[in-house]
Amino acid sequence: MPRQCSQKTSSKRNAAKKKTPPLPATTTPCPYAAFVGLDWADREHEVARLDGETVYRHTLPQTPEDIEAWAGTLRDQFGGRPVALCIEQSQNGLMCALQKYPHLVLFPINPAQADAYRKAFAHSGAKSDIADAELLARYVREHHSRLRAWRPDTAETRQLARTVELRRDLVEERKQTMQRITALLKLYFPLALVIADEFSEKVMLALLARWATHDEWKRANPRTLKQIVSPFLKDEERCHELVQRIRAATPLTTDPAVIKPNALYLQTQLAKLPGLNQAIAEFEQQIAQLFNNHPDAPIFRSLYGAGEALAPRLLVALGTDRDRFQTADDLQSYSGIAPVTVQSGKSRDVRSRFACNKFLRQSFHEFADHARKHCDWAKAFYQHKRAHGQHHHAAVRALAFKWIRIIFRCWKNHSTYDDAQYTAQLRRKNVNYLPPLQTA
Q1: Mean pLDDT of 197-208
Q2: Does residue 438 lie in a domain region?
């Protein structure tokens, strides 16, 4: 028996030695001929290219000729093969210049990503432009498989996207100008704000364009006053009421040291408004033309509450590349509507997402706020959230979260939104926020 056991043991050992030979390792060939990091600046950029562990450094001036020569050198050196180029941010002059070279595959990353990667290797906080360029090159070499290369949308979509962004900037500038005007009037001329509340803002601006102080308003000829405001107040009684309101008002101050400088600055702010209004009107006309000619316009025009301003913004938020977002979750996170969960041990916190495209988040937030005023189920959902203790903006974000899933599906399927069909689907699911159907 002992001999038999030893024979069995030895046979097991021999079998263990005769293992199946390991399969040869399969590695996916790298699709890029080189990895380049570029730390951009206004006048010149630091460039680092990796060849194994060898780093080739270069300073690239911000001129079209130098950029053309540098891109041509990379093309000739690597025979036109793709070159991965990592750069911070996505909107700068250099980024626009590099888009026209097909052999350069651009990886724009958030500056916060680059900063976190730098701190992982430089605990002291040391920083330099050339070191940042080398870190960007190493970053794209190690993580290019997990990064998303920049792919340009159609020219029409990119033009529409830039136009709606600039139109929004003009609207914000006009809003800031009106806020400055309001702040000035509170200092020395509150009667103008009273007129704006009791009559209209257009009446106030028309009068301020002619006279910028309380005393000038009071000394003005009643007939002249009526001529100025009559285009805005069709009723003769309202015009007479306005004149009497101005005559009976008491000035806040008569100190010329307060009135004169503020009145002078007020005139500079008032002078901006006609130009801003004209520019906004021209941008809106261009947006309408681009949007109407876009093949995806019917999808976003069918959304309740989108309107002429928000429908083009929602279109450019998704673009025309159907592979850009694989799921609605991707779009919810990218837009910043989806919250962020921070969990460590027993603590768990859900907070708003700040690392996102702010203009995109604002577009979905404003659309959801408008949609609840035009769509019955959206209104019911908003009121349900408010009744359960959520404040206004939290309820609007929750509504935007739902709308993104609807918009994403319509966008993927090239189909328009059908409110009756979606409401019927909600009733089949027996959601708790819809009111019961009215029966005859």
Answers
A1: 94
A2: no
| Banded model confidence at residue 14, pLDDT cuts 50, 70, 90 | low
Domain around 322: 297-343+350-428
C-alpha to C-alpha distance for 265 and 275, rounded to whole angstroms:
17
d(CA 219, CA 322): 65
Residue 22 lies in a domain: no
For residue 368, the model assigns a pLDDT of 95
Pairing of strands 340-344, 104-109: unpaired
Picking from 121, 152, 183, the residue at the C-terminal end of a domain is: 152
Tokens coding 134: 């080398």
Beta strands in 226-376, from DSSP E residues, in sequence order: 340-344, 347-351
Domain-located, residue 389: yes
State which amino acid sits at residue 185. L
In a domain, 7, yes or no: no
| Close Cβ partners of 316 (under 8 Å, ≥ 6 residues apart) | 157, 160, 161, 164
**Beta-strand runs (E) in 143-297:** none
CA angle 160, 161, 163 (to 5 degrees): 65
Average pLDDT for residues 216-234, to the nearest whole number?
91
Please give the Cα distance from 193 to 196 (Å, whole number).
5
Residue pair 40/88 in contact (Cβ under 8 Å)? The answer is: yes
Torsion of CA 176, 178, 183, 185, to 10 degrees: 160
Lowest-confidence region among 1-15, 69-83, 129-143, 341-355:
1-15
Q: What gap in Å lies between CA 381 and CA 361, rounded to an integer?
A: 20
User: Looking at the structure, do residues 241 and 219 belong to the same domain, yes or no?
Assistant: yes
The pLDDT-based confidence of 120 (bands split at 50, 70, 90) is confident
- Cα(291)–Cα(280) distance, integer angstroms: 16
Count CB-CB contacts under 10 A for residue 227: 11
Mean pLDDT across the chain: 88
Q: Is the pLDDT of residue 175 over 80?
A: yes
Check whether 211 has a pLDDT greater than 70.
yes
Q: Are residues 137 and 182 in the same domain?
A: no
CATH number of the CATH domain containing 82: 3.30.420.40
Of 259, 288, 317, which residue constitutes the final position of a domain? 288
- Structural domains of the chain, count: 3
Q: Are residues 237 and 114 in the same domain?
A: no
Q: How confident is the model at residue 25 (pLDDT cuts 50, 70, 90)?
A: very low
